[in-house]
Amino acid sequence: MDQLAALLDGPRARGAFLLRSILAPPWSLRIQDEAPLSVIAQVRGESWIVFDGGEPVRLEPGQVAVARGPEPYVVADDPGTRPQVVIHPGQRCTTIDGEVLYESLDLGLRTWGNSAVGDTVLLTGTYTMEGEVSRRLLDALPQLIVQPGDPIIGLLGAEIVKDEPGQEAVLDRLLDLLLIAVLRAHFATHEAPGWYRAMSDPVVGRAMRMLYDNPAHPWTVAALAAEVGVSRAALARRFTELVGEPPMSFLTDWRLALAADLLREPDATIGSVARKVGYGSPFALSAAFKRVRGISPQEHRAAAAK
After folding, report:
1. HEC states along the chain?
2. By the number of CB atoms within 10 A of the CB, which of 13, 111, 276, 282 ranks highest?
3. Three-state SS across 151-194?
4. For position 11, what pLDDT does the model report?
5. Strand partners, 101
């Protein structure tokens, strides 16, 4: 597993909000749903995306935008068009004055807009939960990414209007596939974070995958170095140079990120989570969690449940 895989194994789309929008100008949507990550695919026509205080970015047919929240932004036919619709948390849709709109703009299965024959068609998918496992990746992303998305856009567009057995799972996986394709394309053409570049290193990349895949193992730098066939000092030096932190610090962060996600599960106990992420006792996990994150596992679980 790597950080891109971790993103889709943490807040992986599960019954994600997915919608096809058909719009005729003038139109402008203010998105303030506070979602950690949204994917906007331009099927037909063009759109402009503008974060508060930012420069307008054009979205052309076949392109996909990945918007990192929770800051609000506008999607419109033109940067100068004033917002007419506001999307709130929970995908509640109102006018600027607060009048509920969703039913009046309903155009059928997972389809919404101001005109059934509008020139603009968008596909929107929203990840509504920020999983702790993905935090390292989310923190590395710019506020907005725009990349080509064909042919996955076509597949998603064809499936979003179907209502067949297993359709929700099909749509979730297509959304994940579209997202990871965009992120790969972005990191291939822009400055990637150190941990992403390190994954391609024959020594450090292999060590990282071992830590990702088996966090419960009682790793030491010496044991990890032996597995990848280098000296302890060589691994520690190279790992820190490429990733930006020593191997054991990286492992601690990964273990606690996994623990933070597992603690969201209603049936999980601190003891069971501790065993899964490599801590010998609930006390050891609690002490590490409090030291690194500033709150106890119980406090984290209570906050996540709100």
Report:
1. CCHHHHHHHCCCCCCCEEEEEEECCCCEEEECCCCCEEEEEEEECCEEEEECCCCCEEECCCEEEEEECCCCEEEECCCCCCCCEEEEHHHEEEECCCCECHHHHEEECCEEECCCCCCEEEEEEEECCCCHHHHHHHHHCCCEEEEECCCHHHHHHHHCCCCCCCHHHHHHHHHHHHHHHHHHHHHHHCCCCHHHHHCCCCCHHHHHHHHHHCCCCCCCHHHHHHHHCCCHHHHHHHHHHHHCCCHHHHHHHHHHHHHHHHCCCCCCCHHHHHHHHCCCCHHHHHHHHHHHHCCCHHHHHHHHHC
2. 13
3. CHHHHHHHHCCCCCCCHHHHHHHHHHHHHHHHHHHHHHHCCCCH
4. 46
5. none
CA nearest to 39, candidates 71, 10, 69, 60: 69
Starting from the edge strand earliest in sequence, which strands make up the sheet with 111-113, in order?
106-108, 111-113, 17-23, 120-127, 37-44, 63-68, 144-148
pLDDT tens digit string along 54-76?
Answer: 999 999 999 999 999 999 999 99
d(CA 237, CA 298): 36
Residue 96 near residue 74, CB atoms below 8 Å? no
Beta bridge partners of residue 23, listed in sequence order = 120
* pLDDT (tens digit per residue) in 247-306: 999 999 999 999 998 998 889 999 999 999 999 999 999 999 999 999 999 999 988 777
CA dihedral 162, 15, 40, 195 (to 10 degrees): -140
Closest C-alpha to 178, from 189, 166, 170: 170
